[in-house]
Design brief:
With 77 residues, the protein is mainly alpha-helical.
Length: 77
């Protein structure tokens, strides 16, 4: 899952290296709200994760580990 998320992030924003630790993707402007919507779409389509709107918060998409956690939390399969 982590590798696929990194691939999606790299496709959305090829100008950034999402593998470097210590970055807050949202706070540093590496991803924006439209990118988060794309990540949620991938989570739903590829990982059967139904993330509720109330959980689509910057802190849940701030880094790769947070993204994996939110997808895993709402994964149904």
């Amino acid at each position: 899952m982590k590798e696929r998320i990194l691939q999606v992030l790299s496709e959305l924003r090829p100008e950034y290296d999402f593998t470097e630790p210590g970055h807050d993707f949202v706070e540093e402007g590496m991803i924006d709200s439209l990118d988060i919507v794309s990540i949620v779409d991938v989570a739903e389509e590829e990982f059967c994760a139904s993330i509720p709107g109330t959980e689509i918060l910057p802190e849940n998409f701030k880094d790769i580990d947070a993204i994996v956690r939110i997808i895993t939390k709402y994964r149904t399969a």
